[in-house]
Amino acid sequence: MNKDINRRNFIAGVLSAITICVTRGANADSKDTAVQSLDSQIENLSSLNPDDLYKLQDNVQAHNSKLQHLLTDQLRSSGTQPEARLYAAFLLGVYRFPEASTALVENITLEDKHPHDTDALWLWRKYPAMDALIRIGNAGLPDVIEEIAQTDDATSLSLLVQVIKSVCRYPECSKAVISHAIDNETKPDRKARLQNALTNFDTLRVYN
Fold it and tell me: What are the extents of the domains in the chain?
């Protein structure tokens, strides 16, 4: 119980730091006028004219882009605390940033080595990058297929195939995605890895 409380407090601190960085920027003396404008526009949403709505859309996209880059940097950084990397992967899935799928497949084996009580409600399972890719859905599948064609790691392969299974839902659809990649692959080593994924599709380990 104390471990879960400590982890929740740590995560609350990480989220707070992320929010500060995104809304204020790295320089504490400078103000992010785009975010301030975003706040004002949302508060007055009902009174915005078409030009203001376009500006609001631009500000939302700028905010999301900044958040995505910050979280991706946290996920990829070897100097980041393990819990922060887990939370970064989780948030990239929550916000469903398709641009983050490359970083997520690179870190597909990122593992929570301190599993919580399986009966308790928690933010992620054992492999949060896998969960994030499942949330992102079809937009992340090209990067998943690309990683399958490159990896010789059994755990990575199982996790990547599990993403395809979860996104496609039906085995026939999942296998068709891999078969299509095989048909379009010209390099023998990459084609062999994709074929291996298809051949062992039904026997690869499933992770919860």
Answer: 2-199
User: Which residue, among 101, 102, 105, 22, has the nearest Cα to 65 in the 3D structure?
Assistant: 22
| CA dist list (Å): 68 to 61, 96, 179 | 10, 10, 31
Token pair in block for residue 201: 């599709």
Encoded amino acid at 148, one letter: I
Q: pLDDT tens, 78-133? A: 777 888 899 899 999 999 999 999 999 999 999 988 765 555 456 778 899 999 99
Cα separation, 102 vs 118, whole angstroms: 29
| Cβ neighbours, 10 Å, residue 50 | 7
Per-residue pLDDT tens digits for 6-52: 555 555 555 554 554 444 444 444 445 555 566 676 676 667 777 77
CA angle 86, 4, 208 (to 5 degrees): 55
Cβ distance 38 to 56 under 8 Å? yes
Say if residue 184 is exposed, middle or buried (CB neighbours under 10 Å; 0-12, 13-18, 19+): exposed
CA torsion 136-142-146-147 (nearest 10°) is 10
Report how far residue 127's alpha carbon sits from residue 141's, in angstroms, rounded to the nearest whole number.
Answer: 17
